[in-house]
Design goal:
Shape: globular
Order of helices and strands: EEEEEEEEEEEEEHEEE
Distance between the termini: 25 Å
Organism: mine drainage metagenome
Keywords: Hydrolase
Domain Peptidase S26: 2-200
GO molecular function, one term: signal peptidase activity
Number of strands: 16
Largest sheet: 8 strands, antiparallel
Strand content: 35-45%
Family: Belongs to the peptidase S26 family.
CATH topology: Umud Fragment, subunit A
Amino acid sequence: MFLLRPFVAEPFKIPSGSMEPTPVPGDLILVNKFIYGLRLPLLDSRLTPGELPRRGDVIVFRLPKDPKIDYIKRIVGLPGDTVSYENKQLVINGKPVPETPLPDYFDPGTMTYYKQYMEKLGQQHDHRIMVNPDAPPYVIGGPDNFPHREMCHYNLEGFVCKVPAGNYFAMGDNRDNSLDSRYWGFVPERNIVGKAFVVWMNFGAPKNIGLIH
């Protein structure tokens, strides 16, 4: 397993609620590091070909502004896509992403009601998202400066970004509790560690064990 870990699969623990309700805090997940091609550690090159990341993939990646930190988010925009998010509606290349309303969710910890939707990105499985209708579309104070910042335009209702070549746009499923590409910018392809595919343990919530969609 020691030899396989750098190349094939690696365990991670979910530290925050930014991807709720998909993985939740405390989930132990496995990440497929082979699916996008076998990458040599510490080198910006691949030994084997692999699939291209797709819309809807849940990925673990090195944070662009601090590569020592691993993040988990969902890919919503591919290279060349135009991604906008205004009035809590995700739009890809001019087409609103289909959403099916679900029952509201009440978080007793924050005393907050969330709208829940079943969202469909491309041909992937549907996945649940959470939206706080009273929260702004991105953190007050605005986004960080980041590479290709000129590809994004922000206003009070949201933003629109053109994803540059070799990069991806990633967001959390807990849309109003997630620091993601809205704030720190695009995810370079070379920063992607792999695709999260299963929750294999959560000692506090064993019902979460299963495949990640």
